[in-house]
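Please describe our next protein:
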Amino acid sequence: MDKERIKKAVREILIAIGEDPDREGLKDTPKRVANMYEEILAGYEDSPENHSVLFSEKYDEMIIVKDIPFFSMCEHHMLPFFGKIHIAYIPSEEKVTGLSKLARIADVYAKRLQLQERMTEQIADAIMEKFNAKGVMVIVEAQHLCMIMRGAKKPGSFTITSAIKGILRNEPTRTEALFLIKDRK
């Protein structure tokens, strides 16, 4: 990531909106924004391969990690969207992955400029491919600041996307996954 270029661009934006980038409160803003982008867009420097660890374990039933918090950036307006990711997968070849690896793969894709629909598919595809899963279901529930603070201005609205691959597309496995993911407080 070219942080110097980001700093220059942020300085230009401050000038373009009529601000003085040299005033006390804004002097370090270009640097802070560049550091923030490096952190929240770290997915460009990461890959699912970095989190593709398998352990020998004779288990071929569903594994679910739900309510994984995420933060991403809408590529259309460069505003955040955030929420929860639910991942269900069925391992194959007597190998399972560490549960944290599912959350880390989700982060690889969330920490990029994104569309929620694309991110959902990318997470599912990576889990199918990297873990040779028999099936996977990824559900993403998110609030988009581009829908809340501008444009439609609809606070409280959620967008839900899903990607379902392999044997999780079949009933009753699909129904079981949805039942287990559903909030049952």
About this structure: The mean pLDDT is 96.
